[in-house]
Amino acid sequence: MHDIHLIRENPELFDASLARRGLEPQAALLVALDQKRREVSTRMQQAQSRRNEASKAIGAAMGKGDMATADALKAEVAKLKDELPALEECERQLGGELRDFLAALPNMPLPEVPDGANEEGNVELARWGSPRQFDFMPKEHADLGLPLGLDFETGAAISGARFTFLKGGMARLHRALAQFMLDTQTVTNGYMECAPPILVREQSLFGTGQLPKFGEDSFQTTDGRWLIPTAEVSLTNAVREQILDEAALPLRMTALTPCFRSEAGAAGKDTRGFIRQHQFEKVELVAVCTPEQAEAEHAKMLANAEAILQALELPYRTMLLCAGDMGATARKTFDLEVWLPGQQAYREISSVSQCGDFQARRMNARYRPADSKKTELVHTLNGSGLAVGRTLVAVLENYQQADGTVSVPAALAPWMGGLMRLEPL
Question: Which residues are known catalytic residues?
C-alpha cells in the first residue's frame, strides 16, 4: 500500500509510475479525498478543543455568578456534543474510502524495470544449460506421465478439473523433489524452516496484497478463513504488527506447503497436464530486511532458486519482467523459465520479487534502526524455490527416454530410496 504523504509531495512521480502499469492518473483523486478527510479531521479537533474550553469556562462563569454566560456556554457545549459524532463518522468513512482506494492500487516499479504492457515486454537476461538433443520425438509430460503414475482421470473423478492423483514412483519423485528443495534452502542456503498455517484470516491475505482485489483467485472456507495461494502469505505475515531489531535482519524463512488457487484469472490456460492446478506444493522463500539490504537479498534469493535448477541440470533462462507483467505487490521481479522439450518452450517455474515497503505498510511491520529511536517499515521479498509440480514436469520432459521411462536426476538419489528410473506401473 502507498504512503499518502509521498503522493501529496510528488503526485507527478506517482502518476508516472502507475502509467507504466497501464493505469490512468490517480494522484489528484487521492489527494482530494485526503484533503477532504483532513479538513473534517481539523474541524473535529477544533470542535473537541472548543468543547473542552467551554466546559472549563462554565465553572468559572458560575463561580462569578454570571449565569447568563454559563447558560450560553452550556448550550454551546451541548451543540458541539451533538455535532461531534457526525464529524467522527464522516472522518471514519473518508478514512476508509482512502484506505480502500490506496489498497486497490499496485506497487510502483523501480526505475530499472523495463516498460511494457505484457510478457512481450519482458527482457531475457541470461540462459543456463543447453537443451538436450533427443534422437526421438520428445513427448509432453501429460502424455509421457500417464503410464508412469500421473493420473489425471482419478484426480478429476475425486475433485474435478485441475486436480491430479500421483501414484507409485511418480509420487515418490514428487516427494523427493520437495524434500531436496527444502533441505537445500535450509541447510545450504540458510533459510529458517517453518511449518506455517495454510488456513489464514482475511487480514493476512490483505497484508500480502491478495485482498481486496484478487480474492477471486483464492478459495475461502465457510467460516471466513482462506486457503493460502502461496506460503508467502503465512511467512510474511509472521512479522505483522511487530517491531524488529535491526540486528535481527535480514530474516530469511522458507516453507514447503500445499497451495490452493482457483485460477479464476487463467480460464482456458494449461487445462491439460500438471502445469496449472488448483492444489499444488511449493517451497517458498521469504526475506524481511532493511531497505539497504533489499537489493542484495533479491540477488541472493534469485541465486538460491537458480541453484535448484542447476543441481537438477535443467536448462533455464532468467527474465526481468516489465512493468505491465509484474504482480501487483512487486516493484521488481525476476522470472526463471525452465526448458520443456515436449512443448519446445521455456515455461515459468519461479518468480522472485522484491516488494519494498508495500506489504509492510499493510501489515504495520517495522524495525528499529540501531542508531535511532524512530521505527521504519521493513522491506519484504518472496520467491519460489521452487514450485514442486512444475519442477516434476520439467524432470519428466527433460529426462524421458525413448522406451517411455524417465531417469531420475542424480541430485535426488538420497531421497529416492534406490529408485532411479520411473517405469510403467
Answer: 261, 276, 348, 351, 390
